[in-house]
Design brief:
411 residues; alpha/beta; Rossmann fold; 434 Repressor (Amino-terminal Domain); ten-stranded mixed beta sheet; 14 helices
Length: 411
């Protein structure tokens, strides 16, 4: 699901063994991003991709940042700046991808490239929820409110090439509606960004090794799981997943829908669940009117503004007809959409660690627990479950940051 605004986790990387001790500092980075000043040089004009590129369209240098600048961004965290090793160059890439309907469009993302001579690993970082009115938080803007600004940039400075897709609906594709929590398009947009990143590195003669890491929390965790599944099941000859560490994702959509619609207790995040429902209603061509799903007056309000406030009790917001159809499994169109977005029950071969707060009331813990049990029952031997005891969706982000990087640093 989501993890809005500045609390969303922010960070990634593995490499050097000394990073393990420095990871503790990374968990504090969330308070650092706001208010930092860029020392970027003026960006040159976009350069077109070479004719051999199949996904990359253009690259624009946003700026080059020294280890000292990156350290300054986290100056409130004792000793964290000592992790900065290489200068990094940050680029905005545009690349071709497809919408859920199969239309080829231009999307964008940020590419963070350490200035180093040795071959580096590629790390795909999937960001969390960005509301439509927060569009400038998308990675390619590289603003102080973007998740890639501080911790992710610092981690790139330790030696990862970081590919950070905006997703469809942000950056170059902002004219499109973001297909919120739609697993197939989150995965394909992220994979196409990785392809564009490799094409860029090849064109610029920046050596990559064969290691590919995947990270993300909340909607980014769900996108990471969807990407991992896509890469192993359909593109294993093109990419090998070295390790992935998704955090707090809504992997078991069918169970999540039943959890919401059967609840008689207030839920704090119904507006996000409304966004998911609206996405599936459109993407899967169900196209029912809002009054089918929502009681009045909220049906009318949501039709005018899908992000308007809603009541906290599901029975008050959702119609009895809709709730009964899902809970009895007789609403075939929407039940099929939920199943199509389940990514909990498959067999990964690469090491995969699931991180989740046990008291998460936004994306319940059972999403990760169900994934772990299903994967292990299919014979997946390199799947780990890391419960964050007592953590909710937001307080668990720091622990996720620390432990996810400790996990991938093994590989």
């Amino acid at each position: 699901m989501t993890l809005s605004a500045v609390t969303l986790f922010n960070s990634r990387h593995r490499s050097m063994r000394p990073v393990a001790t420095g990871l503790l500092w990374l968990s504090l980075f969330f308070s650092v991003a706001a208010g930092c000043k860029s020392e970027a040089q003026p960006a040159p004009a976009a350069t077109p991709a070479t004719p051999v590129a199949t996904h990359l369209i253009s690259s624009t240098l946003i700026g080059e940042y020294s280890p000292a600048v990156l350290a300054q961004r986290v100056s409130s965290v004792p000793l964290a700046g000592a992790l900065a090793r290489f200068p990094i160059r940050v680029y905005k890439l545009t690349y071709s991808t497809q919408t859920p309907a199969g239309q080829t469009i231009t999307a964008s993302g940020a590419l963070l490239v350490p200035v180093a001579s040795q071959p580096l690993s590629l790390l795909s970082y999937q960001h969390g929820t960005i509301q439509p009115d927060e569009e400038r938080r998308a990675p390619s803007y590289y603003s102080s409110s973007s998740e890639v600004w501080s911790a992710v940039s610092l981690l790139a400075s330790t030696g990862y090439v970081v590919s950070a897709p905006d997703y469809i609906g942000y950056g170059a594709s902002k004219a499109q509606a973001h297909p919120y929590e739609h697993g197939p398009s989150l995965a394909s947009a992220s994979l196409d960004m990785m392809r564009a990143a490799r094409e860029f590195c090849k064109r610029e003669k920046l050596p990559l090794n064969q290691k590919n890491f995947l990270l993300g929390y909340s909607e980014g965790g769900y996108a990471t799981m969807s990407l991992h599944k896509l890469m192993e099941e359909k593109y294993a000859r093109e990419f090998t997943v070295t390790a992935s560490a998704p955090g707090a994702g809504a992997y078991h959509k069918t169970a999540f829908a039943n959890y919401i619609l059967s609840s008689d207790k207030p839920l704090n995040f119904l507006s996000s669940y409304v966004w998911v429902l609206d996405t599936y209603n459109k993407v899967y061509g169900i196209n029912r009117p809002f009054p089918y799903y929502f009681n009045q007056p909220w049906a009318g309000q949501l039709q005018l503004n899908p992000f308007s406030s809603v009541p906290s009790k599901p029975a008050e917001l959702f119609t009895a007809t809709f709730r009964q159809g899902i809970l009895s499994n007789t609403d075939q169109p929407m039940s099929t959409a939920f199943r199509d977005n389940d990514v909990y029950d498959w067999k990964p071969t690469a090491p995969l660690a699931l991180f989740h707060g046990t008291a998460d009331d936004y994306v319940p813990y059972f999403n990760s627990e169900d994934a772990y049990k299903a994967m292990r029952s299919r014979g997946a031997t390199q799947v780990e479950l890391h419960p964050i005891e007592g953590g909710n969706h937001f307080t668990s982000a720091a622990r996720y940051t620390l432990e996810a990087f400790a996990f991938i640093s093994r590989y």
